[in-house]
Amino acid sequence: MSKKSISELEEKLKREKGIHTDFKNDRTYGEYLALNEILSSQNRLSDHHDEMLFIIIHQVSELWMKLILHEMKGAIATIERGEMQPAFKMLARVSKIQTQIIQAWDVLATMTPSEYLKFRDDLGKASGFQSYQYRLIEFALGYKTPHILKIYEKNAALVAILKEAYAAPSIYDVTIAALAKAGLSINPDLLTRDYSVTYGGDDTVAEAWKTVYLNVEHYWDLYQLGEKLVDIEDWLQQWRFRHMKTVERIIGFKIGTGGSSGVNYLKQVLDHRFFPELWDLRTNL
Ligand code: HEM
Which of 7, 117, 169, 275 could pair covalently with 173 via S-S, beta carbons 3.0-4.6 A apart? Predict the structure, then answer.
């Protein structure tokens, strides 16, 4: 097409549809979203067709995890300041994102064991087990496992971020502080505890939640916060379950590329509870 006919077409688009095509002096969609970088980051190690799905499903999940972390960080800060409504909005968004990454397992399940086996060896020891964003989410929820710090010891900047998150109060720690601020009787040791230790449960917290759930009109914000936390844990468990089942469907009971027992390891992690009193409450109410 000649230069003249291109500029005539540009003029026509602008006149009839209001569409701009001249971006010599303006930022484009692709520049704003760094699409060149993102879309050139699917580096297959093999020439097998299905490796593209495998890479993209992980990258998409990691992007959603980035947003989960952003929302969780915002929610922890707002709960600490006693601003519950913005926290509820952020936590509701986290739950919606979780539904997206759970749905993603359906796409991955279109890959058969034979297809995965064609490139599995190329992955070496790489495994989602080393996902530092997944661990940061677990830290924000209060499950503090130190092994990830070792995996990234070569990357000082990342270790610093992980260490800070490791020592910081989780969303449940700030929630327990909110129970105390509302006048509910909470074991004072919990309010100054070492946050790098995974929370193990406390009778005063169990009692406080019981009071909240038996007097919802009086404690509406805390009641709503409790249910938002249960939503997040519920969805996380569903993500873990779908991961475990998808892995079983694709590799059976083979050991993982990360070196764990595979499906049996993934079954064990299902047992961890982030907010124990909120689950026990269902029985004790
Ligand atoms: C064919 C697909 C997949 C297989 C066969 C698989 C397999 C496994 C296995 C066996 C483990 C246990 C650690 C190990 O020994 O490697 C694991 C952990 C993990 N995988 Fe996957 N996985 C797959 C897809 C994914 C995807 C799409 C994600 C999304 C980011 C993911 C995230 C994780 C995470 C976060 C862990 C750590 C879980 C924990 O320690 O609680 N995996 N995976």
Answer: 169
Same domain, 133 and 214: yes
Number of domains in the chain: 2
The helix (run of H) or strand (run of E) holding residue 267 is helix 263-269
CB 188 within 8 A of CB 242: no
36 and 58 together in one domain: no
pLDDT tens track for 120-161:
999 999 999 999 999 999 999 999 988 888 889 999 999 999
CATH code of the domain in which 72 resides: 1.20.58.480
Most informative mutation of 129, 145, 261 for ligand 1 (most atoms within 8 A of CB): 129
Q: Is residue 116 lining ligand 1, measured as CB closer than 6 Å?
A: yes
Looking at the structure, tell me whether residues 29 and 164 fall in a common domain. Answer: no
Could you tell me the distance, in angstroms and rounded to a whole number, from the CA of residue 257 to the centre of ligand 1?
9
DSSP 194-223: -TTSPP---HHHHHHHHHHHH-TTTTHHHH
**In which domain, by residue range, is 21 found?**
1-41
Q: What percentage of the chain carries pLDDT values higher than 70?
A: 100
The 3-class secondary structure across 78-147, one letter per residue, is HHHCCCHHHHHHHHHHHHHHHHHHHHHHHHHCCCCHHHHHHHHHHHCCCCHHHCHHHHHHHHHHCCCCCH
* Same-domain check for residues 223 and 179: yes
Give tens-digit pLDDT for 104-127: 999 999 999 999 999 999 999 999
Whole-number pLDDT of residue 169: 98
